[in-house]
Design goal:
The complex is a heterotrimer of chains A (about 120), B (about 170) and C (about 675). By secondary structure, chain A is α/β, with parallel strands linked by helices. Chain A has one domain (about 5-120): 3-Layer(aba) Sandwich (Rossmann fold), CATH 3.40.50. Helix content of chain A is about 40%, strand content about 20%. Chain A contains 5 helices and 5 strands. Chain A has helices spanning about 10-25, 35-40, 60-70, 90-95, 110-120; strands spanning about 5-10, 30, 50-55, 80-85, 100-105. In chain A, helix 2 (about 35-40) packs parallel to helix 3. Chain B has one domain: Beta Barrel (OB fold (Dihydrolipoamide Acetyltransferase, E2P)), CATH 2.40.50. In chain B, the strands form 2 sheets. In chain B, strands 8-1-2-10-9 form a 5-stranded mixed sheet. A 5-stranded mixed sheet of chain B has the order 3-6-7-5-4. In chain B, strand 6 and strand 7 form a beta hairpin. The longest helix of chain B has 4 residues, at about 65. Chain C folds into 5 domains: about 1-125, HPT domain (Four Helix Bundle (Hemerythrin (Met), subunit A), Up-down Bundle); about 145-265, Alpha-Beta Plaits; about 290-345; about 350-525, Histidine kinase-like ATPase, C-terminal domain (Heat Shock Protein 90), CATH 3.30.565.10; about 530-665, SH3 Domains (SH3 type barrels), CATH 2.30.30. Chain C has 20 helices and 21 strands. In chain C, the strands form 5 sheets. A 5-stranded mixed sheet of chain C has the order 6-8-9-11-10. A 5-stranded mixed sheet of chain C has the order 19-12-13-21-20. A 5-stranded mixed sheet of chain C has the order 14-17-18-16-15. The radius of gyration of chain C is 30 Å and the shape is globular. Chain C starts with a helix and ends in a 10-residue tail after the last helix. The chains are: A alpha/beta (about 120), B mainly beta (about 170), C alpha+beta (about 675). Chains in contact: A-C, B-C. The interface of B and C includes residues 41, 43, 49, 50 and 61 of B.
């Protein structure tokens, strides 16, 4: 069965790029604008992976990660964060909040697929 | 008797039914109370089973059955005589259940008569001789021969003994 | 001095074995420089020590041989068949010399002189230098070896990491093996499925660099302890024998450790029968142990296992809480000690193969047949006491295969077969058994002739209808031989009945499969070990039995009435009809039958059978004690064991049990007893 991935980013272009890349490789993609929307999408639906940006309005990535980890049924779901090079400390913070791994922006689509393969199979 | 020059003349006497048998103490290792005997399924009736003797597995034979006597439940006097048997260049250790063990006694060689060849209940060959003590006949066994033929019950075929046993009490 | 001399004799014997092995290899690949260097080294060592201990005649011979191989090594001479022949003869001669160093016997003296002459001639003969390269096996692009220790923290799973993916990625970098272990002893009642208790050691051979290895763990660096070290074993590839060696030494309750692994995997392992851990050429890291000491060790371990059973029983019945924990620990350590001691008396089949190869080679020459000897699975290990008794029967089967099985090259050609026949020796594990197969692609066993011969010798009557498999069994009857002429090789009828008896003496079974013109296979099944087995303690009535755990598939609870109802005593378990034998009825028919029975499924002849017992008590390490001669007819019991409470439980051999139980249900023509 195809895997379901939730992409959370306030930038539409990023969302579309990620969705396009992942769907082209056989994944199902659901999009969310920010943390709040993301949590709503997660209500009971089955997901294999969450990819989230760190800087978002309403609820930023770190908080989203914390909330996901507290949410019943998703406490151990793999979570990838999108970071930029300059955000080292954020990376550690996100890790501490419970993120599984990260991808550095800007990224080539193939790299995204490689990293995803490290986390879900 | 024969050329058993190194033998002690001491014998252990034990009872099976109404009869007393004796065996040379050189063949007797020890005497045990009867512990729980584990029966080995589908083995002949006179094999009672196996027991634990200080970490080794010892086969135990029902001596009564071997001698053609009907089996009876063990009594408080029943015990297992552990013996050293020589068979075809091997020595094995066996246990045999007897009704009770009487004593260790010295038997003068002169008082041992040859076993009668006819008129006895048992096949001879394994009875080395007989002696009498206090009006009781005691049959002296060659234990190696008793156990040499695994299957054999030592009772004569009924037709072979025309004359009833001559023992008197 | 005597002591040193016997050391030399031991070493020399080993060297000769190595030499023989090396020669056999060289024969199929004469240009192998490593092989030649190896042979030269053996000669050199042998010569050196022979000198020291006064074995002058050995010295003389090896000195000459050494110079020839030196010349071959330097490319001044090639290894020709005559040289090989002479070397083989010298080998045999050297073996005799070891027993009689002063060459007192005249036959030996003559042989010595003769050999020296031959060698001299060969040394002087002019040989063509091979032009161009010796064909070397190309070095594969080997990278280097690494030891990786990955100890994830307990909460790592909470972050969505799957540690197994990491290990997969790691192994994908090259080839290697992963050895998981529990970080601390696990108490199953308190285990949390969300926590991680497993750490990994990985040996990896890869052409990637350290950075690439570290890259695998990039996301979890802060959540684990990671150690990456170069691993010192260099000419190394993870072949099956190596893997098996490591897996065998591996246990799940602690890491093996860098030093232990590197010691374990030092090159040059081969195990002569009489001493255990190898002595390498470099002399590092292993010890010669006399077999009696090993036997003593095994006996002590057996006693420990028995006493520990008593301790466990006592602990569970006592009110002192800590006693249970301690006795559990004792049980775990005893189990490890037992496995450890066992592995010391296991020897790979490989150690016998040299003898077999030699036999095939010599025999095929003598019989003018072309035969190649192949082996598979020779790293399979067998208890040393069993292996010693296996040599003779296998040798005989091989002789038969060569003598009667494989046809002459011309005959084979006529039948469209390759002129060269193949004899295959295969060894592998199957359940609780080690299996050795000897297969030839020859003519197969002529069942008509078997039947005729059996009738002629009065074993059966000519009108007895016999199935094919019964006909084949006749070859195991004593006094039976179908050789048209008695060759000096196989002899007359001394064969198969002795072979069968040798095998049953070590609690094994032998089976024959034959197809006309296609060949014959002998399948020998042997128990893995004769002394201590992991068993399942069960009971019927008041008697307790042990079933080897390795034979057990699954356990079910079934109402006993169900076992009686069906006509063929079949019960449906997991949607399959499985024939079930009610052991309560078979073993303890005089005792009351329980309402509920436990059915344990086992495999026999590739079919599943069920054995119903009254209750399953638990697991038990059974020290196997023989039942003795008196009970040899009850072969469904491989022995007995003493339980913690001092009573005796019988150890069941499921194969023989089912064979006996199914045999009773058929009526067959009985073959005249021996």
């Amino acid at each position: 069965m195809a895997k379901n991935i939730l992409i959370v980013d306030d930038s539409e272009s990023i969302r579309e790029l990620v969705a396009y890349t992942l769907e082209g490789s056989g994944y199902n993609v659901v999009k969310g604008n920010d943390g709040v929307e993301a949590l709503q999408k997660l209500n009971g639906a089955e997901f294999n992976l969450v990819i989230t940006d760190l800087n978002m309005p309403n609820m930023d990535g770190i908080q989203l990660i914390q909330e996901v980890r507290k949410k019943e049924g998703y406490s151990t779901i793999p979570i990838l964060m999108l970071t930029t090079e300059s955000q080292q400390s954020k990376k550690e913070e996100a890790k501490a909040a419970g993120a599984t791994g990260w991808i550095v922006k800007p990224f080539v689509p193939e790299k995204l697929l490689d990293v995803i393969k490290k986390i879900i199979r | 008797m024969n050329e058993q020059t190194e033998l002690l003349q001491s014998f252990l006497t034990f009872r099976l039914g109404d009869e007393i048998f004796a065996a040379n103490v050189s063949k007797v290792l020890e005497i045990l109370e009867i512990p729980k005997i584990t029966r080995v399924p589908r083995s002949p009736a006179f094999m009672r089973g196996v027991i634990n003797l200080r970490g080794s597995v010892l086969p135990v034979i029902d001596m009564r059955a071997k001698f053609g006597l009907p089996t009876v439940p063990d009594t408080v006097n029943s015990c297992i005589v552990v013996m050293n048997i020589s068979l075809e260049a091997q020595t094995i250790v066996l246990g045999a259940v007897v009704d009770d063990v009487q004593e260790v006694m010295e038997i003068e060689p002169e008082s041992i008569q040859a076993a009668p060849t006819v008129g006895t209940k048992y096949r001879t060959g394994f009875i080395e001789g007989m002696t009498k003590l206090n009006d009781q006949f005691i049959m002296i066994l060659n234990l190696d021969l008793v156990f040499s033929d695994e299957e054999a019950i030592l009772l004569q075929e009924i037709s072979e003994s025309d004359v009833p046993a001559e023992k008197n009490k | 001095m005597e002591h040193l001399r016997s050391l030399f004799l031991d070493e020399a014997t080993e060297l000769l074995t190595d030499l023989e092995k090396g020669l056999l290899k060289l024969e199929s690949n004469p240009a192998d420089t490593d092989g030649i260097a190896n042979v030269f080294r053996c000669m050199h060592s042998l010569k050196g020590s022979a000198q020291m201990f006064g074995f002058d005649s050995i010295n003389a011979l090896t000195h000459q041989l050494e110079s020839i191989y030196q010349a071959i090594r330097e490319g001044k001479q090639t290894l020709t068949p005559p040289i090989l022949e002479v070397t083989y003869s010298c080998l045999d001669h050297l073996g005799k010399l070891l027993n009689d160093p002063m060459v007192a016997g005249t036959t030996l003296q003559l042989a010595q002189v003769h050999l020296l002459e031959e060698i001299g001639k060969l040394a002087e003969a002019e040989n063509v230098l091979t032009t161009g390269d010796h064909v070397l096996a190309p070095e594969e692009g080997k990278g280097s070896c690494w030891y990786i220790s990955f100890v994830p923290e307990e909460n790592i799973l909470q972050h969505g990491t799957n540690t197994l993916y990491l290990i997969e990625d790691l192994l994908a970098l090259g080839s290697g093996l992963a050895l998981p272990y529990l970080v601390k002893p696990l108490e199953w009642e308190y285990a949390d499925a969300g926590k991680n208790y497993t750490a990994f050691e990985v040996l990896l051979e890869t052409s990637c660099d350290e950075a690439a290895i570290r890259e695998v763990f990039i996301f979890v660096e802060t959540e684990c302890e990671l150690v990456i070290r170069p691993f010192p074993v260099n000419f190394f590839s993870f072949t099956e024998p190596v893997r098996q060696q490591v897996y065998r030494a591996h246990t799940i309750d602690r890491p093996m450790g860098y030093s232990a692994l590197s010691t374990l995997l030092m090159p040059g392992a081969h195990l002569p029968i009489d001493s255990i851990i190898t002595s390498q050429r470099n002399g590092k890291g292993s010890v010669r142990v006399p077999s009696e000491r090993l036997d003593d060790l095994m006996n002590l371990v057996s006693e420990l296992v028995t006493t520990q059973a008593r301790l466990t029983l006592f602990a569970t019945e006592s009110t002192v809480g800590e006693l249970v924990t301690i006795s559990e620990n004792v049980e775990k350590i005893t189990r490890r000690l037992r496995d450890n001691a066992f592995s010391m008396s296991l020897i790979p089949v490989e150690s016998l193969v040299v003898r077999f190869q030699r036999l095939v080679r010599d025999l095929s020459k003598e019989l003018n047949k072309e035969v190649i000897f192949k082996t598979e699975g020779t790293e399979t290990e067998i208890d040393k006491s069993i292996i010693e008794k296996l040599t003779d029967p296998v040798l005989h089967l091989l002789r038969n295969a060569l003598d009667h099985g494989i046809e002459s090259p011309d005959k084979r050609h006529q039948q469209g077969k390759p002129r060269q026949g193949t004899v295959l020796l295969k060894a592998y594990y199957s359940g609780t058994n080690v299996v050795i197969e000897i297969n030839d692609d020859g003519a197969g066993i002529d069942l008509e002739r078997v039947k005729q011969k059996a009738v002629a010798t009065g074993i059966i009557r000519s009108d007895d209808p016999l199935r094919e498999d019964e006909l084949i069994q006749l070859i195991f009857h004593p006094g039976f031989s179908t050789a048209e002429h008695v060759t000096g090789v196989s002899g007359r009828g001394v064969g198969m009945d002795v072979v069968k008896r040798n095998i049953t003496d070590i609690q094994g079974e032998i089976e024959v499969i034959t197809k006309p013109a296609l060949g014959t296979t002998f399948v020998i099944r042997l128990p893995l070990t004769l002394s201590i087995i992991d068993g399942l303690l069960v009971s019927t009535g008041s008697t307790r039995f042990i079933l080897p755990i390795a034979a057990v598939r699954k356990c079910y609870e079934v109402e006993t009435t169900l076992l009686e109802n069906e006509t063929h005593h079949q019960v449906v378990l997991d949607n399959q009809r499985i024939p079930v034998f009610n052991l309560c009825k078979v073993f303890t028919p005089d005792e009351p039958v329980p309402f509920l029975s436990q059915v344990i499924t086992v495999q026999y002849n590739k079919k599943t059978f069920g054995l119903a017992v009254e209750s399953i008590i638990g697991e038990y390490q059974a020290v196997l004690k023989p039942l003795g001669n008196r009970y040899r007819k009850q072969d469904e019991f491989s022995g007995a064991t003493i339980l913690g409470d001092g009573t005796v439980a019988l150890v069941v051999d499921p194969n023989k049990l089912i064979r006996n139980l199914t045999g009773k249900e058929e009526t067959r023509i009985s073959i005249k007893p021996i």
